[in-house]
Design brief:
The chain has 171 residues and is an alpha/beta fold. 40% of the residues lie in helices and 18% in strands. The protein is built from six helices and five strands; from the N terminus they run βαβαβαβαβαα. The structure holds adenosine-5'-diphosphate.
Length: 171
């Protein structure tokens, strides 16, 4: 069975991620969307919440499973028998980091290939940070995230003081 892993923070999952995962799933027998338990960056949602939102997003795609992990990504991929790690590329600035990560991971696990899929044009601007920022300012998220993610964002907004740094969209 040809298995690929699509790792990320998914805080929260958005339509750009969903597009990459759906396209990647067509290339493999099975795609595992792998949610980092403890990413290096601050997260708004717990790992359980991020996994649940991602699971719901792919509930109608039998080729996509969602799991969390807290090891090296290549170790997780190995443990699942995956030979390919998928990443998405939006802008040129993504390339530098992805290139570095691919080379390091290749040293750690030479048998695993890194496959970067280009974003679809309509999602080129989309990131989880932008989505959180728009939610914090009460903007319309309809074309950016599924309805259940939008609800979860606004629920968090009510529950917490929603410490999302609003950097660019206030003015
Ligand atoms: P990470 O912390 O690993 O960057 P993210 O959840 O931000 O986790 O992103 C996971 C993957 O999805 C990364 O490869 C990222 O480049 C890709 N990605 C994020 N947003 C988009 C988008 N709009 N279009 C295509 N790929 C994207």
């Amino acid at each position: 069975m040809n298995i690929a892993v699509y790792p990320g923070t998914f805080d929260p999952i958005h339509n750009g991620h969903i597009d990459i995962a759906t396209r990647a799933a067509k290339l493999f027998d099975k795609l595992i969307v792998a949610v980092y338990e403890r990413p290096g960056k601050n997260v708004l949602f717990s790992v359980e919440e991020r996994v649940e939102m991602a699971r719901k997003a792919f509930e109608n795609n039998p080729k996509i499973n969602v799991e969390s992990y807290n090891t090296l990504t290549v170790e997780f991929a190995r443990s699942k028998g995956a030979k390919v790690i998928i990443r998405g590329l939006r802008v040129i600035s993504d390339f530098e980091l992805e290139f570095q990560m691919a080379l390091i991971n290749k040293k750690l696990a030479p048998e695993i290939e890194f496959l970067c899929l280009m974003t679809s044009q309509e999602y080129a601007f989309l990131s989880s940070s932008i989505v959180k920022e728009i939610a914090a300012l009460g903007g319309c998220l309809d074309s950016m995230v599924p309805a259940h993610v939008k609800e979860a964002l606004f629920r968090k907004l009510k529950e917490t003081s929603f410490g999302v740094p609003v950097i660019s969209l206030r003015d």
